[in-house]
């Protein structure tokens, strides 16, 4: 699985992430919100073309699991041929749950009901995270378009064992095994 968050309408950033999807052989694209619009607090990103982003994602709609970000709206859904307005979704991995959310309502400071060993994957902060805390897993692929905190643009990858956050040069920024230590 390839995890991408906070595209904010940049076709340039999306294409770079999708090159990694192919390179890593990821079959599923998990989108953690803020897909098409840059939002009023953000600068207009390089390669800003929300319609092109929608068209590119529509071409792989059968491979996408998406959740709504704070910049996503019903108008965005009209352009996309896959559901993107769910506030959250769940993946079941080896009998444990991973909550998918954007992070602006439910997130690391406002967790959904998670059992020990479950986890949360979120975006919103644009900061890469892959770690276990107090028996729960936290994963944020960062932002492919507008990284924050001095980080580089990044995406996430799950190979069936390990969740990784990588930049477009392939450098590992964060990593944690899904198997608890």
Break the fold down into its secondary structure elements and pairings.
Elements: E1 2-4, H1 11-24, E2 29-31, H2 50-58, E3 64-66, H3 74-79, E4 88-93, E5 96-101, E6 119-121, E7 128-133, E8 136-141, E9 154-158, E10 162-167, E11 172-177
Parallel strand pairs: 1-2, 2-3, 5-6, 6-8
Antiparallel strand pairs: 1-9, 4-5, 7-8, 9-10, 10-11
Pfam family, one: Metallophos_2
EC number: 3.1.4.-
InterPro entries: Calcineurin-like_PHP_lpxH (IPR024654), Metallo-depent_PP-like (IPR029052), MPP_YfcE (IPR041802), Phosphodiesterase_MJ0936/Vps29 (IPR000979)
Distance between the termini: 22 Å
Strand content: 25-35%
Number of strands: 11
Instruction: State the major sheet.
Output: 6 strands, mixed
* Arithmetic mean pLDDT: 96
User: Using only CA atoms, what is the Rg?
Assistant: 15 Å
CATH superfamily: Metallo-dependent phosphatases
How would you spell out the order of helices and strands? Answer: EHEHEHEEEEEEEE
Helix share, percent: 10-25%
CATH topology label: Purple Acid Phosphatase, chain A, domain 2
Which ranges are low-confidence, i.e. pLDDT below 50, for 5 or more consecutive residues? Answer: none
Order of strands, widest sheet: 3-2-1-9-10-11
Q: Helical stretch count?
A: 3
Shape: globular
**What is the architecture at the second tier of CATH?**
4-Layer Sandwich
Could you say which structural class the secondary elements and strand pairing correspond to? alpha/beta
